[in-house]
Design brief:
- The complex is a heterodimer of chains A (543) and B (334).
- Chain A is an all-alpha fold.
- In chain A, 72% of the residues lie in helices and 0% in strands.
- In chain A, helix 8 packs antiparallel against helix 16 and helix 14 packs parallel to helix 16.
- Chain A is elongated and about 145 Å long.
- About 8% of the residues of chain A have low confidence.
- By secondary structure, chain B is of the alpha/beta class.
- Chain B has 2 domains: 212 residues, 3-Layer(aba) Sandwich (Rossmann fold); 107 residues, Orthogonal Bundle (Helicase, Ruva Protein, domain 3).
- In chain B, the strands form 5 sheets. In chain B, strands 3-6-9-1-10 form a 5-stranded parallel sheet.
- In chain B, strand 4 and strand 5 form a beta hairpin.
- In chain B, helix 9 crosses helix 11, helix 9 packs parallel to helix 12 and helix 11 packs across helix 12.
- Chain B starts with a helix and ends in a 7-residue tail after the last helix.
């Protein structure tokens, strides 16, 4: 490296610095331009932003521009030619750079001359850092972006109604956010389906827009309704999936127990029969003796008929009787097998581990069924407790490898149920929080446009007068003894803005009978049975 | 001689000759420098100016200031080529025999003053052409070399064009520079009157000999030129080409034919001399800008539109230089 190249190094550094300064302005200009576009979109509520994002866009552009400016290569030839021009060196530097060590008559003198001149040139004066048009443009565009953003977000230019509406929206957003927070956090940790992910994204977008109060009220309500509907569908799918999983799990367990019974007793039992017997274990033991006697009586009667009829029966009639007889004999065998299976299961259930396992399976089945019907039978804590118990059982049943493996799979599948439960809980809360929004849940013909064909019943957060010609009754649910549950109180006529043409006292007995029937058949979760009874009792006393 | 010493010596010798000439010539600094540039740059010079501006005197002074042979040829319509180059004459030998002997014409000198060259016929002008280009003359099939340094200083009168034979482009192109001699200023005129109407007359001394001139020419050739500066010189020439990819707008409008490659050579040679005179060891773009009018003005053939608009070659050159200068951006834009 000769003297010229050494001297050029400080100029190269200076050029990088000046380029960085210029790159900052150019990059910032483009960033601020993007900021202007974004702020404009924000103004029209197409894509919302905030000060942080706007600053990040402009600042990001400036940073990228600066880096590019600093990293751009500076060739010695270009640098020397530029210094020649700027410092008035009459092309000495460039000529010297080319001629260095070429052996010409004037080369040495030329290099010395150029070096001498270059030594007297100040880098800062040759490449000054100026506030030019790029910098001015950057600042102007950044200011413009800020002004547009401010114009769209400041309440200074709003009417009182607009301010109030925005404040209400923001309040609703806060509540949605607070309620949905644990659910959203949990969902983000879990593996979600594409639909669930999309729903989550849309929910967050809704919250974001509401927070800023930049969403028309009608659109907010419509979106909230759509989200709630889709969420409910997804919850149902979750529970359906878990229900199928549990059903399959039960079948697998029945097959395992049937195999075990065959190994221990030498009696082969069909897995389906075993499953039925497992399901009947909750109830009182069937009277196998009576069943056998009844079937035997029919068999005897048929045998007698066949023996006494002689040739009086047609071939077809005889064949039908014989088939009936075969069926009865088959039924007799099944009763015997059922009895043996029942006895085996009773022996098995005598072991506390199996008894507990069956108990958990029953609870899970109920929870899954309740979930499909839009109810929540098990809380998150309860499911987690079940999982813990199943894990303990897996340890206790370590000798039975197949059973242990089955338990592991069951635990995994229970997580679906857990998420579904959380989702359900959250959506209940979400719907409740949306109900807080102004204009929702009041009912009446003038509000109907908010819920066109949605099939949703609006909810309210506080007691309101119903504008229908019916006497309002307060119906309150009872909270469970333990755990938490989410429920929605509905006050009002059966249809929005409509009157019931039939006095409810006429239909109450029928509804009450159906409810009792449902309770008897255990279609209503135990935690809600009491509530249903009280509901009808209150209706009755009110009538 | 080391580069620095050579350049200093060159400058001293140049200044010495210039001072000597200025003992007789008042003002006309650019013209004097241009004539000397032709001497040390190995190029012929065409001086154009109205009568009485000292063109002939200038060349005569030059011939007195340098220790070289000098011939003055007054070009007239009846001047024949042989009058310039010389001719074979029949002479008697001592033994009574006869033989042809070549009698050298006035072209056989170091410095030739071709006075009013446009008054000679093209035939005679062509005879001079070969001498200017080849530094030799051919008579009777025999080539006769001219002794170096060989320099033609031609003058022509831009007025009184009747009965003249304007120099063809090919011949104009052979002049390194074309210098326009203008009227002296009032102060210069006063000095001229004082000098020429008094009793004393300046006696010039020969301060530069042939070897020194040849050495100066060698020094000029050794001045380096950077790539970007050479590129600038080439751009100037290319910009004079109408219809070319890099032709300047003014070339499209006013030029019929642009400069030949000799224009670029002239620019660079002149630039090198200017660099040495400016105590530099490299050619700069400013040197080329300075040389452009005298090196290019006689190489541009303007069209009728230029004639009609009263546009002079110097105007065109000025615009070409401005055009190329504008395109020559700072390689580092910050």
């Amino acid at each position: 490296m000769n003297d010229i190249q050494r001297l050029l190094k400080r100029f190269a550094l200076r050029v990088r610095l000046v380029r960085g300064w210029r790159g900052l302005a150019v990059g910032g200009l483009f960033g601020a331009g993007a900021g202007v576009v974004w702020a404009s979109l924000d103004y029209f509520a197409v894509a919302l932003t905030n000060w942080g994002y706007l600053a990040a866009v402009a600042g990001g552009g400036a940073v990228v521009g600066t880096i590019v400016g600093l990293l751009l290569p500076v060739s010695a030839a270009a640098l020397s030619a530029s210094i020649d021009r700027r410092a008035g060196l009459d092309d000495r530097l460039r000529s010297a750079l080319e001629r260095a060590a070429k052996g010409g008559a004037f080369d040495e003198a030329l290099v010395q001359d150029a070096t001498g001149h270059l030594g007297r040139v100040k880098a800062a004066r040759t490449f000054p850092i100026r506030f030019g048009r790029w910098q001015a443009g950057f600042i102007a565009l950044a200011a413009l972006a800020g002004a547009i953003f401010l114009l769209g977000n400041s309440t200074l230019w709003m009417s009182e109604d607009q301010k109030r509406e925005r404040a209400e929206m923001q309040q609703a957003a806060e509540q949605i956010k607070r309620i949905a927070k644990p659910f959203v956090e949990r969902m983000q940790e879990e593996e979600l389906t594409a639909d669930e992910r999309e729903l989550l994204d849309r929910l967050q977008r809704l919250v974001s827009r509401l927070e800023r109060g930049r969403m028309p009220k009608e659109e907010a309500l419509k979106t909230a309704n759509e989200l709630a509907k889709e969420a409910e569908e997804l919850i149902r799918e979750r529970f359906l999936k878990s229900s199928e999983s549990l059903k399959k799990a039960r079948e697998l367990l029945a097959g395992d127990i049937a195999k075990r019974m065959e190994e221990e007793t030498g009696t082969p039992v069909d897995a389906e029969l075993m499953r039925k017997m497992m399901e009947s274990m909750d109830g009182p033991p069937p009277d196998f003796a009576a069943q056998r006697a009844a079937v035997q009586e029919q068999i005897d009667a048929l045998n007698s008929l066949l023996a006494n009829s002689g040739s009086g029966l047609s071939d077809s009639a005889r064949q039908a009787l014989e088939e009936q007889l075969t069926g009865l004999q088959e039924a007799m065998r099944e009763i015997e097998l059922s009895q043996k299976a029942r006895e085996f299961l009773e022996r098995l259930y005598a072991q506390p581990e199996y008894r507990e396992l069956m108990e958990i399976l029953r609870e899970l089945a109920k929870a899954s069924e309740a979930g499909q019907q839009g109810q929540q039978a098990l809380t998150d804590e309860q499911i987690q407790e079940m999982i813990r118990r199943l894990e303990e059982l897996a340890d206790l049943l370590a000798d039975d490898e197949a059973l242990r493996e089955w338990l592991r799979e069951l635990i995994e599948k229970m997580k679906d149920l857990e998420i579904g439960g959380e989702c359900q809980s959250c959506m209940g809360g979400l719907m409740a929080s949306l109900g807080i929004m102004p204009g929702m849940g009041r009912g009446g013909a003038d509000e109907q446009f908010l819920y066109p064909d949605t099939g949703y019943v609006p909810q309210v957060g506080e007691e309101q007068t119903i504008e229908a010609k019916t006497d309002p009754f307060a119906v309150r649910g009872q909270r469970a003894e333990q755990g938490t549950e989410t429920y929605i109180e509905i006050r009002g006529p059966s249809g929005l803005g409509e009157r019931s043409s039939t006095p409810y006292t006429d239909v109450l007995p029928e509804y009450e009978r159906v409810a009792e029937d449902a309770i008897e058949k255990q279609k209503i979760p135990p935690s809600h049975q009491k509530r249903v009874r009280e509901y009808f009792e209150s209706l009755g006393s009110g009538g | 001689m080391r580069g620095e010493e050579a350049a200093t010596w060159f400058r001293e010798r140049f200044d010495t000759v210039r001072d000597q000439i200025h003992r007789s010539i008042v003002g006309q600094d650019e013209i004097v420098d241009g004539v000397l540039l032709g001497l040390v740059g190995d190029g012929h010079v065409l001086l154009e100016g109205v009568p009485g501006l000292g063109k002939t005197l200038l060349v005569r002074c030059l011939s007195q200031a340098v220790n070289l042979s000098f011939s003055r040829i007054q070009f007239t319509p009846d001047l024949m080529p042989a009058d310039v180059t010389g001719t074979n004459v029949l002479v008697e030998t001592e033994g009574g025999g006869r033989r042809f002997e070549f009698r050298r014409g006035p072209i056989f000198a170091h410095i030739i003053l071709a006075d009013e060259i446009n008054r000679a016929t093209p035939k005679t002008q062509s005879a001079t052409l070969e001498a200017m280009q080849e530094h030799s003359v051919t008579v009777g099939g025999v080539r006769h070399d001219l002794e170096e340094p060989f320099l033609v200083m031609a003058t022509q009168n831009p007025i009184e064009q009747e009965g003249t034979y304007p120099l063809p482009e090919a011949q104009l192109d052979r002049f390194l520079l074309k210098l326009l001699v203008d009227y002296p200023s009032k102060q210069e005129l006063a000095e001229i009157v004082n000098r020429t109407t008094g009793t004393s007359e300046a006696q010039l001394e020969a301060v530069l000999d042939r070897d020194e001139i040849l050495q100066m020419r060698q020094i000029v050739r050794e001045v380096p030129i950077a790539e970007n500066v050479l590129e600038f010189a080439l751009s100037l020439v290319v910009a004079t080409h109408p219809g070319g990819p890099e032709g300047a707008p003014v070339a499209e409008k006013y030029i019929r034919f642009g400069s030949s490659p000799r224009g670029a050579q002239a620019l660079v040679i002149a630039g090198k001399v200017y660099a040495l005179l400016d105590a530099r060891y490299n050619v700069s773009k400013d040197d080329l800008r300075k040389a452009a009018p005298s090196a290019l003005r006689h190489r541009l053939l303007l069209n009728f539109e230029a004639e009609a608009d009263g546009v002079k070659p110097d105007d065109v050159v000025e615009q070409v230089v401005a055009h190329v200068g504008a395109k020559d951006k700072d390689p580092i834009q910050v």
